[in-house]
Specification:
- With about 475 residues, this protein is of the alpha/beta class.
- It folds into 3 domains: about 120 residues, Rossmann fold (3-Layer(aba) Sandwich), CATH 3.40.50; about 170 residues, no CATH class; about 70 residues, Orthogonal Bundle (Arc Repressor Mutant, subunit A), CATH 1.10.10.
- The chain contains 18 helices and 14 strands.
- The strands form 4 sheets. It has a 5-stranded parallel beta sheet with strand order 2-1-3-4-5. Strands 8-12-9-10-11 form a 5-stranded antiparallel beta sheet, sandwiched between helices.
- Helix 1 links the parallel strand 1 and strand 2.
- It is globular, with a radius of gyration of 27 Å.
- The relative contact order is 0.09.
């Protein structure tokens, strides 16, 4: 690789940023342009080795940009790779037209975009390079890893329990009850029990995370090397930094009552754990979504394990309800969704503690997720959220089905998931209730509602106005 020049033309600032990051990391020299006019101007001033071109843009679409490039002798032979969304219906019909030599469909992975750029340059500039071998993930020993994870979790819960007990008894000494104008001390054990009820494990986890973020010097257990405010440093910048520096340790991010902890090894995300987040981001949702257990069985199992210190997933595997590989895939999906959710957080605190080794729980998962890949998909979702929120601006909205439009179109043209969401649109369910009943994520549900609304199969219910 000798720093070949890639020009990326796309109207999405987030796509430009993440593609530039991925390709620069791969050794290319990358310039960007937010629309066709600026792209042509940039290419004219400095002809690139290859152009990555979005198809749907304001001012000029991808085909019009190619026409303009083709009219210039210095640019007509520059290979163009078309980037299109799944619904753009372009792809192969434009390949080999006016410099378009290949296409890639959004969303794409960092490996895919790097691979297609490298292949195109190799093919059209005759600069061949072999791809680096992919690093294999370590093999898992499910029984030993599960035992170690359970042991670590029990130790963690025991430590939190001792903290809760100490806080409760200390507070009990300070509590008095006023009766008939006289101060009467209440029973210490009773007060401790009341206070302990409000200090659940999740609450303590969040309080500790807030303390670690606000005053990391007060919390030992690791080398705190980074802390800050998401209003100043966005979480994507933090993730990118940890990835580039190949850090190992734990990144704790808090926003209000929500806390997410990311476990890193050599710059890759091995696991995400969370407390205080919405139900759709808990592991149970992904177990149900992947049809690993009936909902009734999972609900009954969760109710029966009240107070257990063992991890839900490990217990399900031990008792034979799901297998280990399925559990890892559910955890992988949950981890990605937690990061996607964090990318939308525009306030909160973060702190990173460097460690020599992963925790037992993270070592068991060993997901080895690429930060670049997660950011690519996450930024795409953020862009789509901005579009969706123009129509679905709160989750208390209610939609009605347009039965005539559904009949005219035919249900056969909808996906199974879209049909499931359509059935939940009944003029009574709010968006929030549809999310809960569908057992899907809010992003997927909102995206489908947005599409159904755009093709007029559903409409917003208008609240009656009092006169």
């Amino acid at each position: 690789m000798s720093g070949e020049h890639v020009l990326v033309i796309d109207d999405s600032p987030t796509i430009l940023k993440v593609v530039q990051l991925v390709l620069t990391k791969a050794g290319f020299t990358v310039t960007t342009a937010p629309d066709g006019d600026e792209g042509i101007e940039e290419a004219t001033q400095r002809p690139p080795d290859v152009i990555l071109l979005d198809f749907v843009m304001p001012k000029m679409n991808g085909y019009q940009v190619c026409q303009a490039l083709h009219r210039q002798d210095s640019l007509k032979d520059v290979p163009v790779i078309l980037m299109s969304a799944k619904g753009d219906q372009v792809g192969e019909r434009f390949v080999k037209v006016m410099g378009i030599v290949d296409y890639i469909t959004k969303p794409f992975s960092p490996e895919a975009i790097t691979g297609i750029v490298r292949h195109t340059i190799d093919k059209y500039r005759r600069r061949g390079e072999s791809d680096p071998a992919m690093r294999l993930l370590p093999e898992l020993n499910p029984e030993e890893a599960a035992a170690a994870a359970d042991s670590a979790m029990e130790a963690r819960r025991a430590a939190l329990g001792r903290l809760r007990e100490g806080l409760s008894k200390a507070a009990a000494h300070c509590v008095v009850h006023s009766a008939g104008g006289q101060s009467v001390a209440l029973d210490e054990d009773d007060v401790a029990a009341w206070i302990a009820q409000g200090l659940s494990t999740s609450t303590l986890e969040i309080l500790l995370a807030e303390l670690r973020a606000s005053a990391p010097e007060l919390v030992g257990d690791g080398d705190t090397v980074l802390a800050g405010d998401l209003r100043v440093v966005p979480i994507a910048e933090v993730l990118t930094l940890l990835n580039h520096q190949e850090q190992t340790g734990g990144l704790t991010v808090t926003r209000g009552n929500a806390q997410v902890e990311l476990h890193f090894k050599d710059g890759k995300i091995e696991l995400a754990t969370a407390a205080g987040v919405s139900e759709e981001l808990l592991l149970g949702r992904f177990i149900l979504e992947r049809n690993l257990m009936p909902k009734e069985d999972l609900d009954a199992f969760i109710n029966s394990r009240s107070g257990s210190a063992s991890l839900l997933g490990n217990q399900l595997v031990k008792l034979g309800h799901i297998n280990h590989d399925d559990l890892i895939e559910a955890i992988r999906q949950q981890t990605c969704e937690l990061v996607y959710e964090m990318l939308r957080w525009n306030f909160g605190k973060f702190t990173f503690q460097r460690t020599e080794e992963l925790s037992a729980v993270a070592a068991e998962a060993s997901l080895g997720l690429s930060v670049d890949g997660i950011l690519m998909e996450g930024f795409r979702r953020v862009d789509e959220w901005h579009l969706i929120e123009r129509e679905i601006d709160n989750f208390d909205m209610v939609f009605l089905r347009n039965e005539d439009a559904v009949t005219r179109m035919g249900r056969g043209r909808l996906t199974r998931e879209e049909l499931a969401i359509l059935e939940l649109v009944n003029g009574k369910n709010t968006v929030k209730e549809i999310v809960r009943q569908s057992r899907m994520g809010s992003f997927e549900v909102s995206k489908m509602l947005f599409r159904l609304h755009s093709i007029k199969l559903i409409r917003k219910r208008v609240q009656p106005v009092a006169v």
